[in-house]
Amino acid sequence: MTTTSDTQQPTAALSLQQQFLRMFAQGFEAGPFGPHYTEAFAWRVSGSVDERVLRLALADVVERHEALRTVVHLEDGGGQSIVPAVPPELEVVGLDASPGADRDRRAEELMIETETRPFPADHVPLLRAVLGRFDEEDSVLVLCAHHSAADVWSIQVVLKDLAQCYTARAAGKEPALPEATQYRDYVTAQQEEADSPAVAASRAYWRDTLQGARILVAPVRTTDQSPATSYHRFTTEARVSEEVSRLAKATRSSPFMVLLAAFAVFTNRRTEATDITVPTFTPGREHRFQSTVGSFFNFTPLRVRLEGCRTFRDVVARTRTACVGAFSHELPLLHLLAEAPELMSSAGPDAVPTLFQAVQPPYLMEGDRYGDLEFTAIWRRVIPQPLGSDTPDGMIWSMHLGSTELVGGLSFSRHLFERADVVEQAEEFLALIGELVADPDAAI
């Protein structure tokens, strides 16, 4: 393991995304470079996993992706250094395999345990793995990375590469993956294109779109809890998921757009606001960087105006227009703030940002086979967490539309919100979604 004291001076600049995180840095003890700002994902693995081969494959992945062995420097203007690869940690644990054991729940508990362990951002590699074994043919693989080095998309890239490296190593061969595009290549491209016509056009779009806009905030109610992030989780019945999908298809929208439209109505009913700017997270990746590991995600404001909307179908149409415009002009937030410097002025000590996102990673393996192993992503999470991966002070609604149900989570700063209030909001929102999609042409 390498620490900041072992590294040389910065050899590369920070991306705009990293520069934004650095604005809120609190050293390596808290904040976006602190030990609880992590990204974790897990898969059920069918087949006999060879631990020795898995360790080799994990080392291959760290060697392949420089972001996993990069130390960010927070002082003197910032920068980052790429260090030589060392094998990441692999912890192997035995899981309850008794006949009455709830394996799905135990798998989720293992994810929580992995996610909440401290993960210093100044110790590389910034990837670790836990293999939980129910028996020789049924395992859970959890991958965890520091969020400053890898986003949820990156974790899927890592797993895909890991599976291919494992298959090659198990066959006694060297992995033969195509050369990876590195995060430093993205930083260079970002710098070179900063003054391009495409960026200029997108900045003009945001300058016009965000004129007078303020991001959505929630009033805080300070609690006696220590600063940390908690998670409330919920599901809906299958009917709601089916009706969301049906309405999305009928309106040439995505399920996310339908859910965001419902959230806009929800916000209107709680605040009476008709001009609502909801931040979300977008991937931030061009096609050439889709297989690159790094912190790409952008904080993107979606401005939905409800004036003149008579029905929920009207709101969906308005939301679709807002999303298409925003997604086709996606830029890092620092560019947006240069065009709309008052955007964040609604946030402060007494009111913190509220975000809404749909979690639909790429390469979401559902029974995908690599060699002798089959991988199935664990995306259904239902266990509440008093302590989870850190998010900035505020509240984040996360939705995942599965094949049979809608699964959601609400992460919140537990020192700023009472859990009972959060649970009440979630129940109110779920009831409203069901009402709106059941009769989208009813007056709102």
From TrEMBL:
Pfam families cross-referenced by the UniProt entry: Condensation
Record-annotated Condensation domain positions: 11-330
SUPFAM superfamilies: CoA-dependent acyltransferases
Gene3D superfamilies, per the entry: Chloramphenicol acetyltransferase-like domain, Nonribosomal peptide synthetase, condensation domain
Protein name: Condensation domain-containing protein
Species of origin: Streptomyces evansiae
Lineage, top ranks: Bacteria, Bacillati, Actinomycetota, Actinomycetes, Kitasatosporales
